[in-house]
Write a structure and sequence with these properties.
The chain has 299 residues and is an alpha+beta fold. The protein has three domains: 84 residues, Uridine Diphospho-n-acetylenolpyruvylglucosamine Reductase, domain 2, CATH 3.30.43.10; 124 residues, Uridine Diphospho-n-acetylenolpyruvylglucosamine Reductase, domain 3 (2-Layer Sandwich); 83 residues, UDP-N-acetylenolpyruvoylglucosamine reductase, C-terminal domain (Uridine Diphospho-n-acetylenolpyruvylglucosamine Reductase, domain 1). The strands form six sheets. A five-stranded antiparallel β-sheet has the order 6-7-13-11-12. Strands 1-2-5-3 form a four-stranded mixed β-sheet. α1 runs antiparallel to α2. The structure holds flavin-adenine dinucleotide. The site of flavin-adenine dinucleotide has 32 residues, from β3, α4, β9 and β13.
């Protein structure tokens, strides 16, 4: 363990945390500790870290802003790689932008609109990173990441490789990536538009989001995927679960597909409430809700 720590620390120059509580890194503010919490500051460091972990046979997970994550209270054995240090981006000719995985989506959307690049303005206000948004095929208002991603660079043990949008097989809130790879950089192609009109659209989206989703506490956005032809929040409401609570968490009165933590909630409370909602919706409508949030870690 010591020599693994030393190897990681040498590459990351001190940015190796031990037993780091993941509640500090998820928007729900729940989640137990990660054995190792690693914060590479460059793609070179990222590949080097993956090589060390691979040689040592240490399992790992990657997280961005933790805005679509439920980490169980037992935390994560092995390593968690946080992409927050990978934030470079540059404009390419022809309406293209290259962005590293840890760049906040809000920065990408603001900067692309200022350049007169349309394609992601409807996603304004989604609190994730570029890498997390690609992995989830994040979307809103008729736009999604799949509409702009052209290709990407995946980091693997000691090396990088290109991966095309076609290989991603984007679908509703999902994208196919090899299990042992991390999105390091994404190349995005936009459509030209008027910068002022784009900025106005972003402002409208932010107002709309605040009105519809200002739920007043830590949350992870929509908990369940919309089943085909249905809206998850309506099903939760029909099942009488709006306002239902468990321990320190409750279904938002404002948006029935959001679960809000009052600050005392634990991952176990959220999992129990999610199961109660699933059972209530199944009993009422015959529809099985599927989690949109990714669930990681040990009980
Ligand atoms: C208030 C609120 C509103 C939201 N609204 C929306 C919305 O309108 N539409 C929508 O689609 N989502 C929405 N979300 C959910 C969430 O913000 C998005 O899914 C976001 O794109 C997740 O990005 P992240 O960086 O937080 O990913 P994380 O939550 O950190 O990770 C999500 C998944 O992506 C994987 N991942 C992260 N980074 C990488 C990487 N570099 N390479 C490979 N895999 C990676 C993780 O392993 C995990 O499986 C909302 C969330 C909140 C809290």
């Amino acid at each position: 363990m010591d020599s693994l720590f030393e190897k990681l620390n040498l590459v990351l120059k001190g940015r190796v945390l031990i037993d780091e509580p993941l509640m500090r890194h998820t928007t729900w503010r729940v989640g137990g500790p990660a054995d190792f919490f690693l914060v590479p500051q460059s793609r070179r460091e990222l590949s080097a870290v993956l090589a060390i972990l691979g040689e040592a046979g240490v399992p790992w997970e990657v997280i961005g802003a933790g805005s679509n994550l439920l980490v169980r209270d037992g935390g994560i054995r092995g390593a968690v790689i946080h992409t927050g240090g990978l934030r470079r981006w540059s404009r390419r000719g022809d309406g293209r932008i290259r962005a590293e995985a840890g760049l906040p989506l809000t920065t990408l959307i603001r900067e692309s609109a200022a350049l007169g690049f349309s394609g992601l303005e409807m996603l304004a206000g989604i609190p994730g990173t570029v890498g997390g948004a690609v992995a989830m095929n994040a979307g809103a208002g008729g736009q999604e990441m799949a509409g702009v991603v052209e290709e990407m660079i995946l980091a693997g043990p000691g090396a990088e490789e290109p991966w095309s949008a076609a290989e991603c097989a984007f679908a509703y809130r999902s994208c196919t990536l090899p299990a042992d790879r991390i999105v390091a950089e994404v190349s995005l192609r936009f459509t030209p538009d008027d910068p002022e009109a784009l900025q106005e659209e972003i402002a409208r989206r932010l107002i709309h989001r605040r009105a519809a989703q200002g739920v007043g506490g830590p949350n992870a956005g929509s908990v369940f995927k919309n089943p085909p032809g249905e809206q998850a929040w309506k099903l939760v409401e029909r099942a009488g679960m709006r306002g239902a609570s468990q321990g320190g968490v409750r279904v938002s009165e404002k948006h029935a597909n959001f679960i809000v933590n009052d600050g005392r909630g634990r991952a176990g409370d959220i999992l129990t409430l999610m199961e109660k909602i699933r059972q209530a919706v199944l009993a009422k409508t015959g529809i099985e809700l599927e989690s949109e949030v990714r669930i990681l870690g040990e009980e």
